[in-house]
Design the sequence.
């Protein structure tokens, strides 16, 4: 199975420790501080948690992902919460949109799923989708996190309805993750689903070079939720279309 085909229905449930409201408020404070407009695009939206929260805070959001399963889940959750979001089938590596956005967000590892040669083209697509002066804000899992915490490790989350297992292996430029889900069916038996994920390790200088080649001005690089970047699990890049 492709990444997130089976995980889509369980993604937010299994990531309930992410604290999406606090994470979203970090973005909202930053967007206000930099004077961003209200019309935004989320790339790699997954099940749409960030876009739903931003919509409830007065933003007009479009949200895209390359996973059909994730988009289906995102549409369902948005409808349940009454969040009016335009969902798009969108591949971060190559996309065009019909309108320009005030800002683009790509949180929670979207660009870790792209190899190093794909970064410049992907950032070029984001650049083209922004109005002049628009903000581009994304994060990646840091090299420290992927090499020292995720790689050559196993993670498990065992709950009543679902069990999640991930076996991770380090390669020179990436971590490959073999994920297994055991999902409880209505008759009480468990169905097994397997899928593979690859996350590429991107150094700060590699990302800086690709962003500048695409035309972006880099305003800040910081750790998760604005913490010191050294030793952080995430690197946040806040950029402006020059």
Sequence:
């Amino acid at each position: 199975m492709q990444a997130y085909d089976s995980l889509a229905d369980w993604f937010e449930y299994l990531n309930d420790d992410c604290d999406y409201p606090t994470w979203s408020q970090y973005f909202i404070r930053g967007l206000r501080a930099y004077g961003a407009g209200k019309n935004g695009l989320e790339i790699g939206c997954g099940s749409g948690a960030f876009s739903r929260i931003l919509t409830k805070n007065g933003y007009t959001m479009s949200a895209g992902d390359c996973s059909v399963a994730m988009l289906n889940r995102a549409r369902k959750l948005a409808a349940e919460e009454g969040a009016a979001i335009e969902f798009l089938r969108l591949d971060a590596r190559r996309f065009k949109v019909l309108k320009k956005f005030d800002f683009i967000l790509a949180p929670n590892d979207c660009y870790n799923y792209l190899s190093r040669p794909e970064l410049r083209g992907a950032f070029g697509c984001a650049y083209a989708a922004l109005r002049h002066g628009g903000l581009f804000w994304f994060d990646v899992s840091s090299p420290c996190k992927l090499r020292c915490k995720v790689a050559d490790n196993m993670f498990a989350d065992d709950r009543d309805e679902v069990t999640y297992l991930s076996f991770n292996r380090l390669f020179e430029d990436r971590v490959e993750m073999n994920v297994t889900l055991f999902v409880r069916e209505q008759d009480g038996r468990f169905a097994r689903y397997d899928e593979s994920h690859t996350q590429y390790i991107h150094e700060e200088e590699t990302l800086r070079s690709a962003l500048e080649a695409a035309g972006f001005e880099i305003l800040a690089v910081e750790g998760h939720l604005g913490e010191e970047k050294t030793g952080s699990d995430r690197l946040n890049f806040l950029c402006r279309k020059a």
Observations:
- The radius of gyration is 18 Å.
